[in-house]
Amino acid sequence: MAGFGLSDLGALGLISFGEFLWSLLIIFFMIIFFIILFTVIVDLFRSDDLGGWGKALWAIFIIVLPFLGLFIYLIVRGKGMGERQVAQQVQAQKQFDQYVKDVSGAGSSPADQIERAKQLLDSGAIDQAEFDALKKKALS
After folding, report:
1. For residue 12, is pLDDT > 70?
2. Of 7, 22, 30, 137, which is least surrounded by CB within 10 A?
3. Assigned domain for 9 exists
């Protein structure tokens, strides 16, 4: 039975540890590049302050000269990019808060809550004891 040596590993024995680390670094920066690229493209097409031609010119610039185009876009429109992102998050939070308020019934008047409970009682969804509990909760 022959021993198992580095020559039996095939391609694994051909790369040094330094080359492996260099490859990892290159892959890391490629991932960062694609994250920035997709973020810029999404921001480009979401922005309301640019017309169709402006968006098309930026897109062509980013496609033809990707590194230079991304860096210039981030320098020229970076502040607005952050502001648009914050505005979008604020809008999403407002929509979520309104949805939760609508679903939970919070913020409605006690009369509205009692009316809803009465409708549930009339439809047979709840009994008189549950209606009384809901009415007491609404009035408290």
Report:
1. no
2. 7
3. no
